[in-house]
Structure formats: C-alpha cells, structure tokens
Automatic annotation (TrEMBL), chain A:
Keywords: Nucleus, Transcription, Transcription regulation
Protein name: Transcription factor IBH1
Main location: nucleus
Entries under InterPro entries matching the protein: bHLH_AtIBH1-like, IBH1-like, IBH1_N
Domain IBH1-like N-terminal residue range list: 10-77
Species this protein is from: Gossypium hirsutum (Upland cotton)
Disordered: region residues: 81-111
From TrEMBL, chain B:
Top-level lineage group: Eukaryota
Identification of the protein by name: BHLH transcription factor RHL1
Compartment annotation: Nucleus
Chain intervals with Polar residues compositional bias: 26-47, 181-191, 216-227, 333-348, 401-432
GO-annotated molecular function: DNA-binding transcription factor activity, RNA polymerase II-specific; protein dimerization activity; RNA polymerase II cis-regulatory region sequence-specific DNA binding
Region described as Disordered: 1-54, 67-92, 176-198, 216-245, 320-348, 395-450
Length: 165, 450
C-alpha cells in the first residue's frame, strides 16, 4: 500500500505516533474493558490522556522547556501515586529541574514593558512550565507547543477514525 | 592667550578633554591645531564691535580657509587686554568665533565626509523649535558646536543645570548669537548679553529644553553622521530612538517579541493581527482549544481502545476533517457523561454551546467529538421535541443545536424513529457509526432504554 504519510521516520509525528500506539496497547493489555462505572471510565480516560501527553513529551525529549516541565509533572505525579513518602524526593527533583530551567530563563516575573501581563499570565498557565519564562521565551515555547499539540491531535484523530468504524 | 575667568577655565576644561575629536572631525585636518588653539584662546572683542565683526564674517569670501579666517580676528585679538566683564561676554565672543569658523567651513564646502554631517545638522537645525533659521548656512554651522556643547553638558550630567552655568551661558550665547546675527537684531545683542544673570536664567531654561531637543534630534538624525560628540564605539541609534543601552536592550527585546508573535501568527488560524493583545487572546484560545481536543480525543478512544488491533505502522488516510461522524466509542461517552460530568446545569450548557459553536466554525469533526465527549449530540428540533414529550426521564441530556436537520449524522439513519426510546437508540447508534463496535453498541442499548 502506498503510504504517503510518515515519510520521515524521525519526524515529530512519527515519533509520537509510535510511542503513543505502544502506550495504547499497553493500556489495553493492562485492563480489559470490564468495568463500566464512571470512575473507572474516568480513570481510563485519564490514563490515556496521560499516555498521550507523556508520549508527546518524550518525543520532544528535553529539548524544550515545556516538555521538561511536563515530564517532571508526570513523574512527580506518578511518584506521588506510587509512594506517598517520596514527596520529598520528588520535591528535590522538582527543585533541581525548576532551578535548571530558571537559570536558563531568568525567572524574574517582571513587568514586561510591553504591557501584556494578563494575557501573558494566562498563557503561562496554559503552557506547562510557563511560569518561569519571560515573555520572549514564553512565545517561543508557545509556538513549539502549539505545533506539538496539533501533531498530537492529528494523530489521535487518525487513530480514532481508524478504530471507530 | 590664557583664559582668565573662572568660567572660561571651566569651559576650557570641559571642552578640551571631551570635545577634541568632534571638532576635529569637522575641520580639515591641517587646521585642527589652530582651531584648538583658537578655542583655548577665546577672543574678547569689545561689545561694540559685534556688528562689525559679523559683517566682516559674512562678507568674507568662500575662498578663505581657517587660517584666513583667523586674520580678521587677529587685529582685535592683539588689541585686547584681559577682559573686565566675565562669562557672558566672553561666552558670546567665543560663540561668535566658532560660529564664524563653522560658517566659513560650511562655505568652503566642508572637508570630505563632513558635508553629509553638515547637511544633516542643518536639517536638525531646521527641526529645532522656535528657531527662525534665516540662514541655512548659519544653522548648519551652528549645529556641530551645539552638539559638542550640548553633548558635553549631557555627557557630564544630563540634569545638572546649575553647575554648567558657564556651558549654558556659552550655549545660550551661541544660540542667540547666530540667531541675532541672522535676524540682524544687532542693537539688541549687547543688551541681551550684558544681562549677566537674569538673562542667563531666562535663557537657561530655553537652553536646557533646547538642549534636550537638540540632543534628541541629534540622536534621531544620527543615522548617517553618527554621534560625533560621543565616543565612536557607541551604537548608532536609529531614527527617533535614544542611544542609551537600556533602551537599546528594550528595543532588541521588543523586536524579538515581535518576531515570535509573527511566527505564532502563522501557526494560529484566524490571525488577523489587528493588535498584539487580540493576537495573544487568539493564541490563548487556540491553545485551550487544542488541549480540549486532546482531551476529547483521548476520551473518545476509550471505546476504541477496547478494540485496538495489533500495532499497525501505517495509518489509513485521514478522514477526520470531513463532516462524517468521528464516533469512536460514543456509547461509553454517554456513560461517561453521566458519571464524569455533573448533570447539565444552565451554566455549563451555555458554555458548552458557545464552545461548540466556536468549534463548528472551524471543524465539524472536532465539534462532534466535543459533543460526544460531553455525551451530547446534534439532532433536528422536531426529533428532540418528540423525544422530550415522549420520555420524561432520559438519562442522556439532549441538546438542540438549531435546526440543523440535514446533519449527515442523522441522515445515515434513513428510517424514522418508531418510538421515542427507539429514536434515542437509533441516534445513539448513529453516533457510534454504522454498525458500531459490539461492546459500545451494547452499552448504548443498555443506557438509552428509559
């Protein structure tokens, strides 16, 4: 079959796709659809979404601030879930990561001088790890984040279409 | 001759260490020494001979050089004794000397690359407010010295007005000198400059403001000529912008931000870029929308995950953007809607409505997915009324989205609903796509039965 897609095996899209599909099969292998309670459904949804985000973040590696922040968030959450006492450990890692990102980005949350403080704050909440960026880096990260999100949505849509009919 | 007054000394010290370069820039190289000497040795004409001197200056022919220019000065210079009245008088003379020299230089056509600077300075002179520039030559000639003096004062202390009394006097005198010269208000000149302090105070403010104006115009016009009074390593400012490092950094930052905004504009649809704030709002909305899509898609895949085939490398061609239903696991979504989200109160309904309306503009498929994520679907009003009248309690909230009765979702089910409950079922199964998944079909059946 002629496949015009995924011509570039190293592109973001293909990386994300392979990772995500792997995660999906893993999820499916873990728990067959037995439960129909809403909480179970919600948990599944949560797991899938997390898998999607995680695979996306892993595809980007640590090259971007938002991917690092997202990975840290996921890891800390999984630590917390596994072992409540590991909060300290995750705290340390979080500090290390935050310090690293802050050193790179001059974390001063100063007045921009351009006058977009409100929108910038809102954007900071949306983009993971955005609190520690000045406006310039924030816009940069937002651009890359949008690109990755669109890739994610495209791939997930295709998967849904593929398996839904 | 040595400067005798304190002010002259101050002026001397001010001008000589800081201003040798620019003046040399303006002059032909050979005459710099003489010019310097002449700066250091200001001429002290008797006040009465101002007019004569000016006439002399104006009458001299263009073929004179700097040294020639010196000659008219020499006789009065030799006559002079150390002056009795200090600052203003001396300042004025000094101004006159330099003005004349510069004018001569201008007439000579300048030296090499300084003509451009001269012209620019003429322009700047034109820009100065409240200065009737009768003679463009005079204006042009006065500019460099203005720059020197003004920049000198600003170089020392931009806000210091009291300390630079001598410089201000110099500047004022200089400013007023050619002015008066060009206006031929000769009888007023001695009076003007013989009011030592009062006039000085008056003109000082003028000088200060004009100094700042000059400085700005100097900076603004320094595209080609550079900033002669400042050290040459200084970054050349663009038109209309200051040259201090903070503003430069600010400007760089703003440029970078503008670049990134432009890059974002290409990514985000509906990028009109009317202004930056609305652009940022667009971006924020788009990021929210994308995150929401990921959520919806991950929810919709719950049913799909049930039937996930073994890993396939290649994907079928994308059909998600067309208007067909993108239903994967609509059945499970309904259950989800019951358990996950609170039952539809009015607030969430209106919010959802707005959201779906917005989604429908862009992509029908995503709008449908969004609805399914909430356990809702689109249906014609007639059907909805039929259902609502027939079944009082329906577990799945149905929403009317206007009279979109020709929605392909519902068209796929050709036969009309036989009973309200059955209609619900058919709608549900239609949302799941024709023939659906077994599991989800069962679920749908179980749920929608009243």
């Amino acid at each position: 079959m002629n496949n015009p897609h995924h011509l570039n095996p190293t592109s973001l899209k293909s990386r994300f796709t392979t990772r995500f599909l792997r995660a999906l099969t893993k999820i499916r292998a873990q728990k067959p659809i037995s439960s129909s309670s809403p909480t179970e459904i919600f948990r599944r949804y949560r797991r899938i979404k997390v898998a999607a985000d995680k695979s996306m973040a892993y595809s980007v590696r640590s090259r971007r601030i938002w991917s690092r922040a997202m990975l840290w968030k996921l890891r800390s959450r999984s630590y917390r879930r596994q072992d409540p006492c590991s909060g300290r450990r995750s705290g340390k890692t979080s500090q290390a990561i935050m310090k690293k990102s802050s050193n790179e980005n001059t974390t001063t949350r100063r007045e921009d001088g351009v006058g977009f403080v409100e929108e910038a704050d809102e954007l900071r909440q949306l983009v993971p790890g955005g609190e520690t960026m000045n406006l310039c880096n924030l816009l940069d990260e937002t651009a890359h984040y949008i690109k990755c999100l669109t890739t994610q949505v495209q791939v997930m849509k295709k998967i849904a279409d593929f398996y839904s009919f | 001759m040595q400067p005798c007054s304190r002010e002259m000394q101050a002026m001397d010290s001010l001008l000589s260490p800081t201003q040798p370069i620019p003046l040399q820039d303006l002059q032909p190289n050979g005459n710099s020494g003489t010019h310097q000497a002449q700066i250091h040795n200001p001429q002290f004409d008797p006040t009465s001979s101002h007019d004569d001197f000016l006439d002399q200056m104006l009458s001299t022919l263009p073929s004179c050089s700097w040294s020639d220019l010196k000659s008219p000065w020499d006789p009065p210079k030799s006559d002079e004794t150390p002056p009795s009245n200090p600052d203003n008088n001396a300042g004025f003379h000094y101004d006159e000397i330099l003005a004349s020299k510069l004018r001569q230089h201008q007439i000579n056509g300048g030296g090499g690359g300084t003509t451009a600077a001269m012209k620019m300075m003429m322009q700047q002179q034109m820009l100065l407010p409240g200065r009737p520039i009768a003679a463009a030559g005079g204006g042009g000639l006065t500019m460099p010295l203005h720059n020197d003096i003004v920049d000198g004062s600003s170089f020392k202390s931009p806000n210091q007005q009291g300390g630079e009394g001598s410089v201000q006097a110099l500047y004022n005198g200089f400013g007023a000198g050619p002015l008066h010269g060009t206006n031929n208000q000769s009888p007023n000149q001695p009076q003007h400059f013989h009011h030592p302090q009062g006039g000085n105070m008056q003109t000082q403010s003028f000088g200060a403001t004009a100094g700042t104006v000059m400085n700005q115009s100097q900076a603004s016009g320094s595209t080609t000529g550079g900033t002669p009074a400042q050290p040459k390593q200084r970054v050349r400012a663009r038109r209309g912008q200051a040259t201090d490092p903070h503003s430069i950094a600010e400007r760089l930052r703003r440029e970078r931000i503008a670049e990134r905004m432009k890059a974002l504009q290409e990514l985000v649809p509906n990028a009109n870029k009317t202004d930056k704030a609305s652009m940022l709002d667009e971006i924020i909305d788009y990021v929210k929308f994308l995150q929401l899509q990921v959520k919806v898609l991950s929810m919709s895949r719950l049913g799909g995950a049930a039937a996930v085939a073994p890993l396939v490398a290649d994907m079928p061609p994308e059909g998600g953007d067309c208007v067909q239903t993108t239903a994967g696991g609509g059945g499970s979504l309904q259950r989800n809607s019951n358990g996950n989200q609170p039952s539809a109160n009015n607030d969430s309904l209106t919010v959802t409505e707005h959201q779906v309306a917005k989604l429908m503009e862009e992509d029908m498929g995503s709008a449908m997915q969004y609805l399914q994520g909430k356990g809702l679907c689109l249906m014609p009003i007639s059907l909805a009324t039929a259902i609502s009248t027939a079944t009082c309690h329906s577990r799945n909230p149905m929403m009317n989205k206007g009279s979109s009765s020709n929605h392909p979702l519902l068209q796929s089910n050709g036969d009309g609903p036989s009973s309200p409950s059955m209609s619900v079922l058919t709608v549900q199964s239609a949302t799941m796509g024709n023939g659906g998944l077994d599991g989800s079909a069962k679920d749908a059946a179980s749920v929608s039965k009243p």
